[in-house]
Specification:
The chain contains 7 helices and 11 strands. It is of the alpha/beta class. It has one domain: TIM Barrel (Alpha-Beta Barrel), CATH 3.20.20.
């Protein structure tokens, strides 16, 4: 039995059809004690127009309502997954401070304002070129952002573009990734283990095991585990693999968040 799932989407995200009440009921039925609902909040992405711009008033009202409705059965944290881009530091900081968020995942889904999903940014580039751009983009983001709790699926750049782009070239990216991790640690930020990679035929969670090990080696302490479920049936999927890995590397605590403050939970 797992305590928490810290990355969940409902139909407040345009790429999910999941009813939010049913999502909570499913989380209760699988025995979770705590969840963070983390719907997408994207802005300034080519082709997304207003779709991905989360309706914050309606969203926060609904999550707060669910929080109180189910409080005897499950702890619900109001989270969000922001599509962080270097030019949006001030935008997100200003938007988020108006609402009582418990937990914010910063994720990079784009390069030059284009979502990786569309596979346009990969065209005409090599794996190394795409990964160079992607990790340098993240480096810019973590250097300038403070309004988040953990960095999401740190190396999911391998998900899109086809077979040619699948493998993380960790050796080549190590320097940049070390800089990213060092900044996250200095700022008291965490990373997540995101188990969705198994559902995207990557045969792994994000980020790569070597990155997680390195985060702890460099002194990091904050880790959350999330399924990135866009439908209720994917809640806690492949958590066994994430927890087995944490135990293998001697990690005894995961983090949970309330009002943007981390606390540690023995696993
Ligand atoms: Zn994401
Ligand atoms: Zn997500």
């Amino acid at each position: 039995m797992y305590y928490s799932d810290y990355h969940l989407h409902s139909n407040f995200s345009p790429d999910s059809k999941q009813d939010i009440d049913e999502l909570v009921k499913k989380a209760i039925s699988v025995g979770l004690k705590e969840i963070a609902i983390t719907d997408h909040f994207e802005y300034d992405v080519v082709g997304f127009e207003e779709d991905f711009c989360l309706d914050l008033p309606r969203y926060s009202e609904k999550v707060l309502q669910l929080k109180s409705k189910y409080k005897s059965q499950i702890i619900i944290r109001m989270g969000v997954e922001i599509g962080a881009q270097p030019q949006l530091t001030e935008y997100f900081a200003a938007q988020l401070k108006e609402y009582p968020f418990d937990f914010v995942i910063a994720s990079c889904h784009t390069i030059d304002k284009v979502d990786l999903y569309f596979c346009k940014v990969q065209e005409g580039r090599t794996l190394d070129e795409v990964q160079d751009i992607y990790f340098n983009n993240i480096l810019k983001v973590v250097s300038s952002y403070d309004c988040f709790s953990v960095f999401g699926h740190l190396d999911y750049v391998t998900r899109y573009g086809g077979e040619k782009f699948r493998q993380l070239n960790y050796e080549r990216q190590k320097k940049t990734i070390d800089k990213i991790l060092t900044i996250l640690i200095e700022k008291g930020k965490g990373i997540e283990i995101n188990t969705s990679g198994f559902r995207y035929n990557e045969g792994r969670f994000y980020p790569h095991k070597d990155i997680i090990k390195r985060y702890f080696e460099l002194g990091g302490e904050i880790i959350t585990v999330g399924s990135d479920a866009h439908k209720a049936s994917d809640i806690v999927k492949d958590f066994d693999k994430a927890y087995a890995f944490l135990s293998e590397i001697g990690i005894k605590y995961i983090s949970i968040f309330e009002n943007m403050k981390a606390s540690f939970l023995k696993i």
